[in-house]
Amino acid sequence: PILYSYFRSSCSWRVRIALALKGIAYDMVPVNLLKDGGQQFSAEFKAVNPMQQVPALKIDGITLSQSLAIIHYLEDTRPKPRLLPQDLKKRAQVRMIADHIVSGIQPLQNLSVLKQMGEKKMEWAQNCIASGFQALEQILQHTAGRYCVGDEVTMADLCLVPQVFNAERFKVDMGPYPTTTRINKALLELEAFKVSHPSQQPDTPAELQD
């Protein structure tokens, strides 16, 4: 497998966590979203992903983009360890939390949107994340065990950790979100989350390496 990734892309990080959890070895091709006006806009990368976004994963003779579509494919083809609970109610909760982050928070504060916001980008990002986290905290108070839904790592957790990382980057006060903070801390203790962390990637700038 070949993963097209950017160290700080939260969408790429979700996929890196899934690959690590499932023990799937891969080669990484860095796509720098800032260098050269954004390497994702090159003709070469547009041929890989017409949406000109990371991640993209070449695997089993196909090329997939969109992080959740990639994770669902990995789940379907390499089901151990599973990232979707067998219990259908819990499974729905996992998908709900994942979608809440992937559709309701992250796109509002991603790079392409922030470029449009100019000097207000920090304030915009903080407001979008805080608004989403207020809802997320309420949901997690009903679904959480050790992690987002019960005590097993699920697709929801793969979405949570990169979003909390974004929140901290944009200096969001995490005080009002104790459940979210607790789950994030527990997940960051797991090896798959450590090795996939933005500070540990081949394309991480030296000053941001951990």
From TrEMBL:
Residues 87-206 form the GST C-terminal domain. It holds the Pfam family GST_N_2. CDD domains: GST_C_Zeta, GST_N_Zeta. GO terms for molecular function: glutathione transferase activity; maleylacetoacetate isomerase activity. InterPro entries: Glutathione-S-Trfase_C-like, Glutathione-S-Trfase_C_sf, Glutathione_S-Trfase, Glutathione_S-Trfase_N, GST_C, GST_Zeta, GST_Zeta_C, GST_Zeta_N. Keywords: Cytoplasm, Isomerase, Phenylalanine catabolism, Transferase, Tyrosine catabolism. GO terms for cellular component: mitochondrion. Pathway: Amino-acid degradation; L-phenylalanine degradation; acetoacetate and fumarate from L-phenylalanine: step 5/6. Its cofactor is glutathione. The gene is Gstz1. One of its GO terms (biological process) is L-tyrosine catabolic process. Belongs to the GST superfamily. Zeta family. It catalyses: 4-maleylacetoacetate = 4-fumarylacetoacetate; RX + glutathione = an S-substituted glutathione + a halide anion + H(+). Its EC number is 2.5.1.18, 5.2.1.2. This is Maleylacetoacetate isomerase. The keyword Transferase applies. It is found in: Cytoplasm.
